[in-house]
Every structure is written in structure tokens, then in C-alpha cells.
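Request: When convenient, would you put together a sequence paired with its C-alpha cells?
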Amino acid sequence: MTPIDRVSACRLAAACGLSLLLAGCAFPKYDYSLVPDASVIQVQLQDGRWVAVPPECARLYTEPQRPIYDSRPQAAFGCATYTNLANSVARPQDLLAPNSYAGQQADSAADAVTRYRQDKVTPLRETNSTKKSSNN
């Protein structure tokens, strides 16, 4: 290696090291241990039925962990996610004590595959609904 090649190789290595060092400063690691879990959703019995109540967003707000010059707005981490979950859960008591999964019935699954391979699949109904009309 000639002296000029060594100098350019050293400059390249120094530039790479400096860029990695600056990248570490630009993208610091944050502590996400304060991000809430699903336990912030309350399940209550209201008027004889179970209801999932979303959390108050103000309780989920945490102090900024970013440098003071970072002017991005702060957010209550998880508020939208847990509010959507609370509003869409079909059986709220599952959040407290979920039903156990009985597992797949292997025989029915194997029969379905066999019917498919033998081209004996039941065709779809041509109606828009399976609800019986009052005329039947």
C-alpha cells in the first residue's frame, strides 16, 4: 500500500467512525418501561352487562424523555390503542379471565382437506343471507 492509499484509508475509517458516533447521538435509545399494558382498561358491570372502559389519556401521559430542543408533541403512549381495544372487544370479561382454548378438532380439519382434495367441496349459498325469511 502506498502512503497516499494509507492516508485515504485512514480518512475513510475516521469518517465512518465519526458518522457512526453522530448517528448514535441523533437516535438515542429511549426507556419504554413507562409504556402501559392492557391492565389500564377497566372492566365494569354496568346495567347488568360487562363493559370495557378505556383509560383516561391524562393518566397515561409521561414526562418527555427527549432532549429539551426536541419540539415534537408529547403523547400519552398507548391511549389510542387501548381506547380502540376497549371499544371493540366483544366479550369484556375476557380481559379479566379469558376462556381456555379447546384446540382444533383434528378430525374435522382432516375431513375438510380430504373433501378439498377430492373436489367434493360444498358450494357457497347463492343468497346474501343465511337468515330464514318468514315465508319459509
The chain has a mean pLDDT of 76. The chain has four helices and two strands. The CA atoms of residues 52 and 88 lie 9 Å apart.
